[in-house]
Backbone:
């Protein structure tokens, strides 16, 4: 099972391959990609940093979703470090016997990663200002 | 009790330090102390933070902190 926090480029295709299964009739994947704007402002650079427990948490999440009824396999990775526009920050893939379970599990996995994975995002805008996202 | 405080992400930026030693009997005392010490920017960030006490999610801010405890200050997560 792929469940990692890494500081190198992510391949969604690798995640799709990792969940391939003869019993799977559906593979749903998701890429969270760095975009060039946020809240109407232009973004030039993003940095993700993780808590030391992030690798354990992403493994727990993957195991939890892989144990769901109807789900065959799960692969999920989050990238940390400096990322450019268009880089994949979050890659995941879920295989299941039927598409409904695969769509649902993939969408909910992304939601849970955003909620529970201890990773933070700093974005730098074109005017040189920067902010930690979601931090007051 | 002397405890070690580790700040992450936006909390680190607001505190201006990565880690520091502080003396506090409970988590709520510690939060008050670091807010006073570092000023309004950190005070604002702290209102949104969760805390790990020796790696475990803190649920009771009035529970006693043992000497040598490590407290992590975690701003809201923003992965994905």
Residues:
């Amino acid at each position: 099972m792929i469940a990692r926090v890494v500081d190198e480029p992510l391949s969604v295709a690798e995640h799709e391959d990792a969940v391939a299964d003869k019993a799977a009739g559906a593979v749903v994947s998701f890429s969270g990609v760095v975009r060039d704007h946020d809240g109407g402002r232009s973004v030039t650079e993003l940095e993700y940093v993780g808590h030391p427990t992030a690798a354990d948490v992403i493994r727990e999440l993957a195991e939890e979703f892989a144990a769901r009824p109807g789900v065959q396999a799960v692969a999920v990775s989050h990238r940390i470090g400096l990322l450019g526009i268009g880089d994949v920050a979050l890659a995941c893939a879920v295989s299941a016997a039927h598409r409904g379970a695969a769509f649902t599990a993939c969408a909910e996995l992304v939601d849970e990663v955003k909620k529970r994975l201890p990773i933070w995002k700093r974005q730098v805008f074109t005017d040189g200002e920067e902010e930690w996202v979601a931090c007051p | 009790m002397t405890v070690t405080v580790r700040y992450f992400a936006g909390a680190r930026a607001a505190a201006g330090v990565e880690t520091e030693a502080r003396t506090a009997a409970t988590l709520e005392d510690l939060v008050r102390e670091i807010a006073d010490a570092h000023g309004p920017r950190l005070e604002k960030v702290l209102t949104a933070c969760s805390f790990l006490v020796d790696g475990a999610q803190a649920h009771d801010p009035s529970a006693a902190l043992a000497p040598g405890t490590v407290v992590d200050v975690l701003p809201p997560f923003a992965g994905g």
Notes: Chain B has one domain: 2-59+66-74.
